[in-house]
Structures are given as C-alpha cells and as structure tokens.
Amino acid sequence: MARTEFPFGRGAVVGALAYVVGYLLTYLWQVNAVRETLSGLNALISLLGGETIPAWKAVGWVFYGAHVVPIRIPTPGAGSGLRSLIGNGGAPTLLYVVPPLVLLVAGATVAYWAAVETPGEGLRAGVTIASAYFVLVVLGVFLFQYAMGDVTVGSDLARSVVLAGVVYPVGFGAIGGGLYGATR
Q1: Which neighbouring-strand residues pair with 155?
Q2: Are 36 and 44 in contact (CB under 8 A)?
Q3: Burial class (CB in 10 A: 0-12, 13-18, 19+), 73
Q4: Does residue 164 lie in a domain region?
Q5: What is the CA radius of gyration of the chain?
Q6: What are the tens digits of pLDDT across the range 4-21?
Q7: Would residue 11 count as lying in a domain?
C-alpha cells in the first residue's frame, strides 16, 4: 500500500459488514432472552392499546450496550434516566467482547486487502472501517428507538455517536489493522 493511499472503499464495505455481523451475533445470542424479558411489558403495553416492543429493536439496545452505550428510559416525574442492559443481570457480560472482536477482524481484513507491509500502514488501513460503521451507528440509534405517545426508549444518542460510532471502530479497527501489519 502506498503511503498516501487509503482503502476507503473497502474499509467502508468492511465497516458496514462489521456493524451487521456484530448486530447479528448479538441477535442470535440474545433474541430469546430479550423476548422473554419483554413478554410481561409487551402484555401490559398491548392491554393499554399500544404497539408492542419488537425484539429486534430491544436487541439493538443490547448491541449498543455491548459498546458501553446505555439506553435512555423515561422515568415518571424525573425526565429520563440512563440504564445499562449488560452486566446487571439484563444480559451476559461476555457481550462486551462482541464489538471489539468483530472490529479487530474487520481492521485486519482491510489491512490484508490493502496488502499493508508495516504496522503503521495497517493502523491507517484499519481506521477506514470507521466511516461506514459510524453512519450505521447513527442510523441504528433512530431505527432501534421505540416510541409510544410521548415516551421514547432507545440508546443514548451522544454516547452512541462517540463510543459506538467513533471510539470503537477507530480504536479496534486500527489495532486489528496494525496487528496484521505487524505480522507482515
């Protein structure tokens, strides 16, 4: 890879795939537990004439939680509060490993495709996954939101953008690319 070339196109494709794969792994692992957790709440919502919370949206909250992003839950009389869905009995702590592993592999994949020869080139190649990952993180925040009347539940936007959209893909993508470059 020439020092001025960045594999932006491939990085974007791999970054988008990393987001989708991370969500799908989380979905496959947690969808049954999420459905069980939502069953009582959804029964109440249904009784009140509301639209139930789809499991795929709640799994999105868990996926963002694996990036250390809490969900924003309205609290009567107090506005809204932030709550983590992982590590407090809501979902297994091991879910915190999913995004880093997927992003490490994504960064190494871009470095491989770019035929990097040094760790520095690998770092630069690995960072390119962040562009598409960032866009999908922002879109996902809105896609995974659940609204009923004035009540909206979903991942915290600011933390999603900073942590899931920038810190994770830039950091782990670069590390994955750099590690691949170090093996060359």
Answers
A1: 71
A2: no
A3: middle
A4: yes
A5: 18
A6: 467 889 999 999 999 999
A7: no
In the chain, the number of structural domains is 1
The range of the structural domain enclosing residue 61 comes to 17-182
List average pLDDT for each run of 10 residues in the chain, which is 184 residues long. 69 97 97 89 81 93 95 70 74 93 98 95 96 98 90 92 98 98 92
**Quick one: tokens of 127?**
């960072």
Q: How many CA atoms lie within 13 A of 141 on its CB side?
A: 21
pLDDT tens-digit map of 36-50: 988 888 788 778 778
Indicate whether 84 belongs to any domain: yes
Dihedral sign computed on CA atoms, order 43, 49, 50, 52: positive
Q: Sign of the C-alpha dihedral, residues 92, 25, 183, 1?
A: negative
Instruction: Kindly state whether residue 6 falls inside one of the protein's structural domains.
Output: no
**The tokens of 180 are what?**
């691949």
